[in-house]
Design brief:
379 residues; alpha/beta; Rossmann fold; 2 domains; eight-stranded mixed β-sheet; six-stranded parallel β-sheet; 12 helices; 18% strand; globular; disordered C terminus
Length: 379
């Protein structure tokens, strides 16, 4: 499938994509952004600049043939790459808005890959813009942001209502946004998965190996998985990730005498995760809130049965044929489901073809094409 198939190939677009996180910074939102950019690079009639954060000083790098990665210095260092403080976000908002206003004549359209802070910058620019909701900027998704979001809700209402297009990566997230901002028209454009990297092993795994790839933050609920492991005989847990709560997680492992059964793999580059999925027998996602997890899609594409919390967008992916859903923050229920998943004979698990980055990129290109402009007339 060619991305431009069915569209006007004479359209030439110059798009600025704003996202405060991009690998190695951030988590699923950055990974999704990176995969979309890889697909966009195959469009000869699209010029794309990605405005994001740097680790350290300002960076401006070409990604041939038609993409540029502009990283702004927000005072971030190699410590805690997967968590952005309010100070980090404020610095990014300030620098990205200044940069956008300075260069806005270079673009036809802005794509804010998150409502906050990118959506506000896009609105301030006066250019046509799209907003892609990714989760953390919506009330009710991550409690630590709720007060801030309530305070700026009137501003966000203006930003969202004036966007040329809005989209979310799951039905759950769409409905969550509509609770706070009823009446908006929001499309659903799912995340994808790289099937060249994430595929089932040649031989099924027989050892009771559990995999979890996650940030170690309060929203991810990894402590409940560790507590559940103590109730699951003989199983081994592979943990991929890092985060603010890592030291507390390690203390909990020692307290429960699980050190010999937990393998800490740390931060693993995304393009090296495939073989780790193929080491495991099941995948566990213990999150307390989730929109549409890239890790969940990768696990299913890797043929892994999943134990996940019955929250957010998880029920849109998990059914009785590919996994088990459990209540959040319930270690006992999690342990029982893990034991059941390890002992069950699962039929072949696969992921529908609609979950592909090529499909997602095509949907965004469709939106870009609808809002093409000659020159920079934004009236």
């Amino acid at each position: 499938m060619i991305l431009t198939q069915g569209y006007n190939a004479d359209i030439n677009m110059k798009v600025l994509l704003i996202n405060y996180e991009y690998p190695p910074l951030g988590g699923g939102t950055g990974i999704a952004n990176q995969y979309l950019v890889k697909k966009f690079k195959k469009l000869p009639n699209l010029t794309l600049d990605v405005l994001t954060s740097s680790v350290g000083s300002f960076q401006n790098r070409r990604l041939p043939p038609n993409t540029r990665l502009v990283r702004l210095n927000i005072g971030k260092n190699l410590h805690n790459l997967h968590h952005q403080s309010y100070l980090n976000l404020l610095r990014f908002f300030w620098h990205s808005t200044w940069w956008t206003l300075k260069h806005k004549k270079d673009y036809d359209l802005i794509h804010a890959f998150s409502g906050l802070p990118g959506g506000i910058t896009a609105w301030l620019s006066g250019l046509p813009y799209l907003v892609s909701f990714r989760g953390a900027e919506e009330p009710g998704y991550e409690p630590r942001h709720d007060l801030l979001l309530k305070l700026i809700k009137p501003l966000l209402k203006v930003v969202y209502s004036r966007a040329r297009s809005l989209d979310a990566n799951s039905q759950y997230l769409k409905q969550l946004v509509l609770k706070s901002f009823p009446g908006l028209k929001i499309k659903v454009i799912n995340n994808g998965v790289d099937r060249a990297k994430f595929y089932p092993p040649k031989n099924p795994v027989t050892q009771p190996i559990i995999l979890c790839t996650s940030r170690f933050g309060a929203r991810k609920g990894v402590e409940y998985l560790i507590q559940a492991l103590a109730l699951v005989p003989k199983a081994k847990l592979l943990l991929v990730g890092t985060g603010k709560l890592e030291s507390k997680m390690k203390q909990l492992v020692r307290k429960l005498h699980l050190s010999s059964r937990v393998e800490w793999l740390g931060v693993v580059p995304h393009d090296r995760l495939g073989p780790i999925y193929r080491r495991a027998k099941i995948f566990v996602l213990p999150s307390l809130s989730e929109s549409q997890s890239n890790s969940l899609l990768e696990a299913l594409a890797s043929g892994l049965p999943v134990v996940a919390t019955n929250i957010g967008g998880n029920p849109e992916l998990i059914n009785s044929q590919n996994g088990i859903l459990v209540p959040p923050a319930d270690s006992q229920a999690l342990a029982e489901a893990i034991i059941q998943a390890l002992n069950r004979r699962w039929q072949k698990i696969s992921l529908g073809q609609k979950f592909s980055w090529k499909h997602s990129a095509k949907e965004y290109w469709r939106l870009y094409s609808q809002y093409s402009f000659s020159g920079h007339d934004t009236a």
